UniProtKB/TrEMBL annotation:
Stretches of the chain forming a coiled coil according to its record: none
Protein name according to UniProt: Phosphate transport system permease protein
Originating organism: Bifidobacterium pseudolongum
Lineage of the species this protein comes from: Bacteria, Bacillati, Actinomycetota, Actinomycetes, Bifidobacteriales
NCBIfam families assigned to the protein according to its UniProt record, in alphabetical order: phosphate_pstC
Residues annotated as transmembrane: 32-53, 88-113, 125-144, 156-174, 181-200, 293-316
Gene: pstC
């Protein structure tokens, strides 16, 4: 007695099943990706609304009543919210801009050395060191700056004030100890230098070899090859790396708090103490002793920092898009 064998699935049926399963997986992945994107937007909106609602009574409320609150909170140093946050915003931008100027060209030089000049073993060691420096917490930089850099850098700042004091930025006398904007900017530059270096190094290493070989084949020197092929290729990435470093410098708290002698002035005197203060460091310093009104004032300054950081990143995105074209 013969038994009937079960018919096997035809190749045509299996080929029809695979596209159906692929379409389902694609829909699931697309849904997860959309959900993650929406979650980022919701989180950003939630933070912005929290800051706005908590700060609105001081920003958009009765200005006469708010002036009394601000004057009481600041001990008479400011009589309005914008009069209070203005010098803080000025100090924040000044310190971050100086740090970026000090770190940018050094970072690009280190990245080019690692990617195109250093032997492979040395490049690997330097890359490892740069990545470690980028992961060090900011409080460690603050401790090093306060305990090591501040006591030892005074002779250098004093020399700058003595011989370059005719420049308003370096007007003396240099503060001793030098808990000044110049010292803080130097520490922040050291802090953001490995971040910019790491990203720029990875971008320079991605330069197509055909571009480099074509430039060398036409008789260009190594520096000319870098200038004509590597730097133009990595321009947009270098800008993004710089803006990432600037963003960290704008929001840095502990290193500034541990080094800078604060002040509420619109001052460019980098070597004198008690001239400027940053928003983030001011919030950290004032928050433990702030009452309900004081917390609202600090949240208002945090809202201003939030907006400035958002605008900086938006500008960086626009610049990156134009540089990539």
């Amino acid at each position: 007695m013969s038994t009937a064998s079960k018919p096997s699935a035809s190749p045509a049926a299996s080929s029809l099943t695979q596209p159906v399963n692929g379409q389902k997986a694609d829909r699931v992945f697309r849904g997860v990706a959309y959900a993650c994107g929406i979650l980022i937007l919701v989180t950003l909106a939630a933070v912005a609304l929290f800051l706005l609602f908590r700060a609105w009574p001081l920003i958009g409320g009765d200005q006469q009543a708010n002036s009394a609150v601000i004057e009481n909170f600041t001990g008479g140093k400011a009589k309005s919210f914008w009069g209070y946050v203005g010098p803080l915003l000025f100090g924040t931008v000044l310190v971050a801009a100086l740090a970026l100027v000090l770190a940018f060209f050094v970072s690009i030089g280190i990245a080019l050395f690692i990617s195109h000049y250093a032997p492979k073993r040395l490049a690997a060691v330097l890359s490892y060191i740069v990545d470690i420096l980028a992961a060090i917490p900011s409080v460690i930089y603050g401790l090093w700056g306060g305990l090591v850099l501040v006591p030892t850098i005074y002779p250098f700042w004093n020399w700058i004030a003595e011989y370059l004091g005719w420049i308003p930025l370096f007007a003396g006398p240099a503060a001793n100890p030098p808990r000044t904007v110049a010292t803080v900017a130097l520490v922040l530059a050291i802090m953001i230098l490995p971040i910019i270096t790491s990203i720029a190094r990875d971008i320079f290493l991605q330069t197509p070899k055909l571009l480099e070989e074509a430039a060398l084949g036409l008789g260009a020197t190594k520096w000319e090859m870098i200038k004509l092929s590597v730097l133009p290729f990595g321009k947009s990435g270098v800008i993004s790396a710089s803006m990432l470093g600037l963003g960290r410098a704008l929001g840095e708290t502990m290193a500034v708090l541990m080094i800078l002698s604060p002040g509420l002035k619109y001052s460019f005197k980098l070597l004198q103490a008690s001239q400027n203060q940053t928003i983030a460091a001011n919030i950290a310093a004032q928050y433990p002793e702030a009452d309900g009104i004081g917390v609202s004032v600090l949240i208002g300054t945090g809202l201003v920092l939030f907006v400035i950081t958002f605008l900086v990143n938006l500008l960086a995105r626009r610049i990156t898009e134009k540089a990539g074209k």
